[in-house]
DUF218 domain-containing protein (Shewanella benthica), 247 residues
Amino acid sequence: MMFWLKKVISQLFMPIPLVVLLLLFCILMLRNRKRVRVVLAVAVVILVFLTSSVGSNLLTASLENQYRVNNQAIAAGCLVMVLGSGHDDEIPGGAVHQLSATALVRLTEGVRQYQLGKDCILIVSGWGGSASKTPHAKIMAAAAMQFGIPKDRIITFPLARDTIEEAQYLKWDVGSYPFRLVTSATHMPRSMAIFQGQGLSPEAAPTDFITRQGYWWQLDANNLLSSQRAIHEYVGRLWLKLKYESD
């Protein structure tokens, strides 16, 4: 119940649902023109800010600048954990093609990190959700094998629904053994906080950087997507803080 409640509440803070709610609010208050003007102005400002490179970069850079790309060699017996990020069972062509763009970038970096060590184990995670027949971890594992990782060097956590559960499954499986954590750069600060909060020893290996330079006056859907991903992380950090403070 708490898992789905978190999903629903977080959606209310995403750019498009938020702007739509503000516009619906305006429709309900058409008789009060002064309030409608204020709400419409707020909606326009939010949309312009989040679709501009200035706004999206302001939101993403503070997250992505916390950890650098990791090119350090890993000692023998290493663990590399790649956090999941969705796939589509219906896409033909094999596991690599079924992965979302974010999942593919994460897995590619995970394979690179795997190759930086000796006798490494690659850990992939993620459940299937209600719309998928196959757990995401299974698709990630199949794609990793297509990249040349032996099946016996891969561990899957197919029941982990979010980052908190991914950390819990890892703790149950390997304890406090050091490992290299691979996820998107915007997601890395929250992931590190979660894994360290579980008493684990992650070493950050961020990828999927989305902060991009652009014309300040150009409003773009890609900027809106970057802003949404950053807002998702800020809301997640707030939820994490409230959850553990309440616990």
